[in-house]
Amino acid sequence: MAELIDGKRVAEDVVRRVKALTAELLERGTQKPGLAVVIVGEDPASQVYVASKSRTAKECGFHSVQHTLPAEISEQELLDIIGELNADPAINGILVQLPLPGHVDAGKVIQTIAPQKDVDGFHFINVGKLGTGELETAFVPCTPAGSMLLIERVRGKDLSGLNAVVVGRSNIVGKPMANLLLAANCTVTIAHSRTKDLAALARTADILVAAVGRPEMVRGDWVKSGATVIDVGINRIAAPEKGEGKTRLVGDVAYAEAAKTAGAITPVPGGVGPMTIAMLMANTLASAYLAAG
Ligand code: GUN
What are the TM regions of this chain, as residue ranges (predicted)? Predict the structure, then answer.
């Protein structure tokens, strides 16, 4: 059976370190790191994530502000709020929770965030830095950054020459994940909905990352013996066995099957999810350090 990768524990380690470094920053007389989280509309999953981000920021000792905006807000009003946060010296990190309502151009909103406060790592400047290997000064998107940390916990820092397959090509996870693995000298393949014989490709992977948003799509026989499996999916599915109308969370990987073959695997929940929030804290702290000079 595979080793279970305890993302919750690693995330707690990261948050503990962020907390300690924040205390050090304050002792030097520097202002608290400031994180602004912006949520538009009432998507229940987004509300849960955002509440968790704001709560963890407070736990780290940050100045934490949340802007909860109505779904009908105009694009211009939202851009104006971001402009104010860009100019606010108490704010080091700005996160606009996605998805945004259809009448708002999410791309335009993201590109309005000042790159040096873009703790999500979605601005072209940060995407470009990651793509060109400027990892020292880039903000790296939180979910792939957290996934890398988990991979390094299992395989060590030297991933050179390993075959990595990333299933999913989103800007939030798939593409930045592939870039991080490439920067770590893996041989990287990005697979997606048009990929031919995905199962056979997945079986070549020493590191298999699933980020497609399709419940339990990656089956046990897609997994090479001893592979490290990182499941980024968080899918809510019906669970009639728990009673009528009940649901449960599953990943993009059929966990019970995959755990028989994998060397190590992240569970859902308790794997990548907590790492996303922890890395947001690390990015915000890094931004505060950079601002402090
Ligand atoms: N929605 C789903 N994941 C993310 C994320 O990492 N950042 C933001 N801003 N929105 C998201």
Answer: none
pLDDT level of residue 256 (50, 70, 90 thresholds): very high
Mutate to test the pocket of ligand 1, among 47, 49, 111, 175 (most ligand atoms within 8 A of CB): 49
Domains of the chain: 30-114 (3.40.50.10860), 142-273 (3.40.50.720)
Q: What is the pLDDT of residues 203-253, one digit of tens each?
A: 999 999 999 999 999 999 999 999 999 999 999 999 999 999 999 999 999
ipTM confidence score: 0.95
User: Measured between alpha carbons, how far is residue 222 from residues 23, 108, 210, 219, 292 in Å?
Assistant: 46, 38, 11, 5, 48
CB within 8 A of 22, min separation 6: which ones? Answer: 32, 33, 60, 61, 62, 285, 288
Catalytic residue list contains 53: yes
CA of 1 to the centre of ligand 1 (A): 32
Is 31 a residue of the active site?
no
Name the residue type at position 33: P
Is 97 considered catalytic here?
Answer: yes
210 CA from centroid of ligand 1 (Å): 16
